[in-house]
Amino acid sequence: MSTVTHINPPELHTNPAFSQGTLVEAGPTLYIGGQNGVDADGNIVAGGIAEQTTQAMKNLLAVLAAAKAGPEHVAKMNVYLVAGADVNAGFAATRQVWGDQPTAITVISVASFARPGILVEIDAIARIP
Description:
Blueprint: E1 4-7, E2 21-24, E3 29-36, H1 49-66, E4 74-82, H2 87-98, E5 104-110, E6 120-127
Parallel strand pairs: 4-5
Antiparallel strand pairs: 1-2, 3-6, 4-6
Helix pairs in contact: 1-2
Protein name: RidA family protein
GO molecular function, one term: deaminase activity
Pfam families: Ribonuc_L-PSP (PF01042)
Protein backbone atom coordinates (compact mmCIF):
# COMPACT_ATOMS: atom_id res chain seq x y z
CA MET A 1 0.00 0.00 0.00
CA SER A 2 1.36 3.38 -0.98
CA THR A 3 1.87 5.93 1.78
CA VAL A 4 2.12 8.79 -0.72
CA THR A 5 -0.78 9.73 -3.01
CA HIS A 6 -0.26 12.24 -5.80
CA ILE A 7 -3.14 14.67 -6.37
CA ASN A 8 -3.89 16.09 -9.83
CA PRO A 9 -7.37 17.66 -9.93
CA PRO A 10 -8.88 17.62 -13.45
CA GLU A 11 -9.45 21.38 -13.36
CA LEU A 12 -5.68 22.05 -13.10
CA HIS A 13 -2.94 21.76 -15.72
CA THR A 14 -1.45 18.26 -15.95
CA ASN A 15 2.27 17.81 -16.51
CA PRO A 16 4.15 14.47 -16.53
CA ALA A 17 7.07 16.11 -14.69
CA PHE A 18 5.16 16.90 -11.47
CA SER A 19 1.97 16.54 -9.43
CA GLN A 20 -0.10 19.47 -8.16
CA GLY A 21 -0.22 18.11 -4.61
CA THR A 22 0.80 15.16 -2.48
CA LEU A 23 -1.13 13.50 0.32
CA VAL A 24 1.14 11.79 2.88
CA GLU A 25 0.04 9.43 5.63
CA ALA A 26 1.65 10.16 9.01
CA GLY A 27 4.80 8.22 9.81
CA PRO A 28 8.60 8.41 9.58
CA THR A 29 9.73 11.28 7.37
CA LEU A 30 13.05 11.68 5.56
CA TYR A 31 14.32 15.18 4.81
CA ILE A 32 16.92 14.99 2.04
CA GLY A 33 19.41 17.82 1.95
CA GLY A 34 20.31 19.53 -1.31
CA GLN A 35 21.83 17.14 -3.82
CA ASN A 36 23.74 18.48 -6.79
CA GLY A 37 25.71 17.28 -9.77
CA VAL A 38 28.73 15.88 -7.96
CA ASP A 39 30.09 12.34 -8.02
CA ALA A 40 31.08 10.18 -5.03
CA ASP A 41 34.44 11.99 -4.85
CA GLY A 42 32.76 15.40 -4.72
CA ASN A 43 33.76 16.33 -8.27
CA ILE A 44 31.28 18.27 -10.41
CA VAL A 45 30.23 16.02 -13.31
CA ALA A 46 31.16 17.15 -16.81
CA GLY A 47 28.51 18.61 -19.07
CA GLY A 48 25.64 20.99 -18.55
CA ILE A 49 22.31 21.13 -16.79
CA ALA A 50 21.13 17.72 -18.06
CA GLU A 51 24.24 15.91 -16.82
CA GLN A 52 24.25 17.67 -13.46
CA THR A 53 20.52 17.06 -12.99
CA THR A 54 21.00 13.37 -13.80
CA GLN A 55 23.73 13.12 -11.16
CA ALA A 56 21.72 15.08 -8.59
CA MET A 57 18.77 12.72 -9.09
CA LYS A 58 21.05 9.66 -8.77
CA ASN A 59 22.38 11.13 -5.52
CA LEU A 60 18.81 11.68 -4.30
CA LEU A 61 17.95 8.05 -5.15
CA ALA A 62 21.01 6.89 -3.18
CA VAL A 63 19.82 8.72 -0.06
CA LEU A 64 16.33 7.25 -0.51
CA ALA A 65 17.76 3.74 -0.94
CA ALA A 66 19.84 4.14 2.23
CA ALA A 67 16.55 4.82 4.05
CA LYS A 68 14.89 1.80 2.36
CA ALA A 69 12.69 4.07 0.24
CA GLY A 70 12.27 4.92 -3.42
CA PRO A 71 10.95 7.69 -5.64
CA GLU A 72 7.37 6.58 -4.99
CA HIS A 73 7.79 7.71 -1.37
CA VAL A 74 8.80 11.30 -2.17
CA ALA A 75 6.12 13.82 -1.22
CA LYS A 76 7.86 17.05 -2.30
CA MET A 77 10.96 18.21 -4.15
CA ASN A 78 12.49 21.66 -4.45
CA VAL A 79 14.62 22.19 -7.56
CA TYR A 80 16.98 25.15 -7.65
CA LEU A 81 18.42 26.01 -11.08
CA VAL A 82 21.09 28.58 -11.82
CA ALA A 83 19.61 31.52 -13.73
CA GLY A 84 19.45 30.87 -17.46
CA ALA A 85 19.51 27.07 -17.15
CA ASP A 86 17.21 25.16 -19.52
CA VAL A 87 14.42 23.94 -17.24
CA ASN A 88 13.11 21.58 -19.94
CA ALA A 89 16.51 19.87 -20.21
CA GLY A 90 16.44 19.48 -16.43
CA PHE A 91 12.93 17.97 -16.48
CA ALA A 92 13.93 15.55 -19.27
CA ALA A 93 16.98 14.39 -17.31
CA THR A 94 14.87 14.00 -14.18
CA ARG A 95 12.35 11.76 -15.94
CA GLN A 96 15.11 9.54 -17.37
CA VAL A 97 16.48 8.81 -13.89
CA TRP A 98 13.34 9.17 -11.78
CA GLY A 99 10.92 7.37 -14.07
CA ASP A 100 7.19 7.89 -13.99
CA GLN A 101 6.92 9.00 -10.34
CA PRO A 102 5.93 12.67 -10.61
CA THR A 103 5.63 14.41 -7.27
CA ALA A 104 4.83 17.92 -6.10
CA ILE A 105 7.72 20.24 -6.96
CA THR A 106 8.79 23.83 -6.73
CA VAL A 107 11.34 25.08 -9.27
CA ILE A 108 13.32 28.19 -8.35
CA SER A 109 15.88 30.13 -10.39
CA VAL A 110 18.86 31.35 -8.37
CA ALA A 111 21.72 33.69 -9.25
CA SER A 112 24.40 31.18 -8.21
CA PHE A 113 25.31 28.47 -5.73
CA ALA A 114 27.92 28.51 -2.97
CA ARG A 115 30.20 26.30 -5.06
CA PRO A 116 31.13 27.73 -8.48
CA GLY A 117 30.18 25.45 -11.38
CA ILE A 118 27.09 23.95 -9.73
CA LEU A 119 24.03 24.41 -11.97
CA VAL A 120 21.30 22.59 -10.02
CA GLU A 121 20.47 21.52 -6.47
CA ILE A 122 17.53 19.35 -5.44
CA ASP A 123 16.16 18.64 -1.96
CA ALA A 124 13.22 16.45 -1.06
CA ILE A 125 10.89 15.20 1.66
CA ALA A 126 9.87 11.54 1.69
CA ARG A 127 7.54 9.37 3.77
CA ILE A 128 9.45 6.25 4.78
CA PRO A 129 7.44 2.99 4.64
